[in-house]
Amino acid sequence: MKTIGTMLCLASLLLLAACTAGPEEAASTQDAPLPGAAVATCRVVDVQDGQLILAAADGGENDVYALALGDLPVTYEDPSQTEIVPGNQIQIGYGGTVEETFPARLGNVEAIRVQVDGFDNLCALYLQVFQDLWDTDTALNQGIVQLGLDLSQTRLTPAEQSAVGVALGNRWDLPVHQATWEELVQAGTIDGENLQWEDGLFLAIREEDPSADALTFTAEKWRSGLGAYYFSDCTARQDAGGQWSAYTVGAEAIA
């Protein structure tokens, strides 16, 4: 009986070890160092033909990167995820150098890890809003050769604001000026006296009474005092996983 008791005790210890191995292995996978001389943490703002448009975490307006995925090894902390999507927070192991272009490119990228935490796809939501505005009253889009973009009255970081501009510029093949309407007038880009932008289109989103997991906002595209379109009283909510719901438009207006 003593021998049987000893064997049962050993079996229990082995079973306990087997049960706890999973979380320990997951933790070691998440905490394992990435190859490369440096690691960059970024938000995925958009995915365009196998290229990631990235905003550096807590970065400034110039901390925007473009990264071609190619055959780069990608690991996912969430085993159910199989592809990188806008909103993901990722870590990139690279050689430590950065090409001084805009958007910038990280040198000698070796690996990507998609984090299970930190998801927030507000940039993707606002890109959808701008696409919807673009597809509404399309006569306002005719003949434009440049865009103005103002996201300064949103919760997006400066890097995220710039990355949204890069994504829009790539989509529509147009240069983007990150500036307020007043700044574009002061620069002479917009004719403030006659209230028109002959060859450009100004886009903006302004958040109103935002909370941690919900927001109300107004979106506009403006060509002139008599040529503008607005989505007002738009609302969206964010779930516990960081996913923003499809937005609803309270009212639409035309000028």
What would your notes on this structure say?
It is a single chain. Strands 3-2-1-5-8-4 form a six-stranded mixed beta sheet. It has a six-stranded mixed beta sheet with strand order 10-9-11-12-13-14, with helices on one face. A two-stranded antiparallel sheet has the order 6-7. The N and C termini lie far apart (about 90 Å). The protein has helices at about 1-30, 120-135, 160-170, 180-185, and strands at about 40-50, 50-55, 65-70, 75, 90-95, 100, 105, 110-115, 145-155, 175-180, 200-210, 215-225, 225-235, 250-255. It has two domains: about 40-115, Nucleic acid-binding proteins (OB fold (Dihydrolipoamide Acetyltransferase, E2P)); about 120-255, no CATH class. The protein is of the alpha+beta class and about 260 residues long. It contains four helices and 14 strands. Strand 12 (about 215-225) and strand 13 (about 225-235) form a beta hairpin.
Q: What would the keywords be for this entry?
A:
single chain; OB fold (Dihydrolipoamide Acetyltransferase, E2P); six-stranded mixed β-sheet; alpha+beta; 255 residues
Strand content: 25-35%
Number of helices, counting only DSSP H or I runs of 4 residues or more? 4
String of helices and strands: HEEEEEEEEHEHEHEEEE
Give the C-alpha Rg: 24 Å
Mean pLDDT: 90
Q: Report the uncertain regions.
A: 1-28
Strand order of the largest sheet: 3-2-1-5-8-4
**Fraction in helix:** 25-40%
Task: Note the main sheet.
Answer: 6 strands, mixed
Shape: globular
Assembly state: single chain
Spatial gap, N to C terminus: 91 Å
* Tally of distinct domains: 2
Q: Would you tell me the structural class of the helices and strands?
A: alpha+beta
Number of strands: 14
